[in-house]
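User: I'll paste a sequence; please echo it back and then give the predicted structure.

Assistant: Echoing your sequence first, then the prediction.
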Amino acid sequence: MSKIKQGKCEECGKDYKEIRTVCGVCGYSPHGTPHMAAASDPYWKCGNCGRTLQAPNPPEKCPGCGESCDFKNVTCYEPTCGGPGNIDPRL
């Protein structure tokens, strides 16, 4: 495992020492690498700016607008919209 980076995240400005696993703001790890979403991770859509991202859980703050927003799970779970691994266009 790589050494924890020093300083602040280039993406969101949060101090790397404050990030325990994955930053809830930008999705980066304390090692400065982006979290790679698994194919089974749901899609989340920001209720404020509409940014969509794939992660196990919605972030604390939206990486698009930087606000603490409500996130809606917009993953498709039915064959009519493409099935798992796709965003449901109706949402």
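The CA atoms of residues 47 and 70 lie 5 Å apart. The chain has no helices and three strands.
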